[in-house]
Design goal:
The protein is α/β, with parallel strands linked by helices. Helices cover 37% and strands 23% of the residues. The chain is built from 14 helices and 27 strands. A seven-stranded mixed beta sheet has the order 17-20-21-15-14-23-24, with helices on both faces. Strands 11-10-9-12-13-26 form a six-stranded mixed beta sheet, with helices on both faces. Strands 2-6-5 form a three-stranded mixed beta sheet, covered by helices on one side. α9 crosses α10. The longest helix is centred in the N-terminal third of the chain and has 24 residues. The mean pLDDT is 96.
Amino acid sequence: MNDLHIISGQTVALPATAYQARHFIDGVAQDSADGRRSDRISPSHGVVVSQAALGSAVEAEAAIRAARAAFDDGRWSRLSGKARAAVLTRVADLIEANVGTLAVIETLESGKPIAQARGECGGAADLWRYAASLARTSHGDSHNTLGADILAVVLKEPIGVVSIITPWNFPFWILSQKLPFALAAGCTCVVKPSELTPSTTAMLAGMLTEAGLPAGVCNIVLGHGNPVGSLLSGHPDVDMVTFTGSTAVGRTITKVAGDRLKKVALELGGKNPQVIFPNCDLAGAADAVTFGIFFNVGQCCNSSSRIIVHEKIADDFVARVVALSRKVAFGNPLHPDTQVGAIVTPEHRERIDACVRAAVAAGAEVCLGGGSLTVPGLGGQFYQPTVIRGVTPDMAIAREEVFGPVLAVLTFRTPEEAIALANDATYGLSAGIWCDDIHTCLDFGRRVQAGTVWTNTWMDGFPEVTFGGVKQSGQGREIGSYGFDEFLEVKSLVMRIGRTRAPWVNQA
C-alpha cells in the first residue's frame, strides 16, 4: 500500500453549513408534513454535509396528484415542441451556470472526486439540450396509399405520469438521462433520488422553476424506497416507472408495477467484460481497463469489472494494469488531482472486501490491493485498487457485481472461447474488445450479449447513442431517440375522408 499514489490534501473548502434539501411538490419547496429529516454524513470527510426532508406516503401521494393534474389539464403535454424545448434549453443553461455548486455537494455526498463530479454535472447539460432537440423533431407517420377515401396517421403521444427513481452513484447524470427526455415527450414526472445523494436533485428544482417549467410538471420527493419508491412504483395514477439501480430492486419494481400492467424501464447491474487480443494497442487497452475499473471507485454499472485476456499476453498485460493502478491518484475527493475517492458507505466497503476474501478462498490470487485504505486525515472509508487473477468462470468474483475498485482477470485461447466467457453471465449491459482486426471486432460485436459494445475504447458515450442492457441488466433504453420513444405511446388515427363507404346493413 505504501507505493500507491495517495492524495490527502484538498483545494476546495468544505461548506460552512449542511445543505438543506426539501421536497418539491406542485411548484413549492416544502418540508415533510411530520417534520422528519435525514442526515447525510460524507463518506470522505465524516461530517454532516446535507439534511434532507424524509418523505412518507403523504408527500408521495401529493406529488402524484400534482403530476396527474398537470398532465390531464394539458399545461405541459399539449404545449408545442418548440415551447417545451425552450424550457429544457434554459434548464441546460442554468445547470452549466451552477456546476461548481452542484459538484461540491455531489462530491461530499457520494465520495467521488470533484473533477468527476464537475464533468458529470456539466456534461448533463448536453443531455438536456439533446432532449430539447427531440421535443421539436418528434413525429409520427402517415399512410396515404390506403385508398382514395382513407388517410391514416400514426401519432406519438406522451405516456402520462412517469415515476423516476435514481441511484446514488451518478445522481445528477442518471437523472438527466431520464427527466429531460420524459419532459421533452410531454410527460409529467415524480422523481425520487437516493436518500444517500438527494441534494443535486433538490437543487434542480429551483432551476426548473427559473426556466419556466409549469408547477406540477416535475415533482421531487425525498426519502427511502419504502414507502416512497414503493408508492411511486405501484400507484394507479402513475403510467410508467423508470428505475436505475440493483437488479434485485428492479425485480421488485417489476412485480409491483406488473399488478397494474404499468410500463417499466430498468437499467440495472452489470458484470461487463473487456476482451484483450494480442494484436491490439496493449498500452491503450491497459489504460482503458484501469480507467474502466477505478472510475467512480468502481461504483458504476458500466465498470469493466472483468477482463478476458489472451493467455499469451496475460502476464504482460496484468503487469501493465498493476503498474498503472499504482499511479492512479486515490484520496481526498476535494482535490482536483484525485481520480478515485471514497466508498459510499461503510457497509458497502465491507461488502466489497467480503467479495475479495471469497475470491481468495476460492483460489484466486490478489496481485494488488485487497483491503481497506486509510487516507491521512480522512479515515478508512476507502478501498485499495485491487487486481485479482487466477479467476475461473465458476467463481463468484467472475459472475457477481462487486460494485467497487476490484478487477477480475480471466484468460482465453480462441475467439470462440472469448465470446463464450463474455456471454457466461446473467448480465448483459456492456462489453468491449481490443483487437486490430476489424473482422474479429465485428464478429464479437454481433455475437456478444450486451446492450452496448465498445471496440478499442471503453465508456465513450454520447446523448445521441442509446443505452441499456439485456438479460438481467434491464429492459428498455435511455437517451438517444430510442430512449425518448420509451416515454411515448403510439396511436393510430384512421380517417375516412370520402363518402364511399358501403353500408353494412341492407337498408332495402
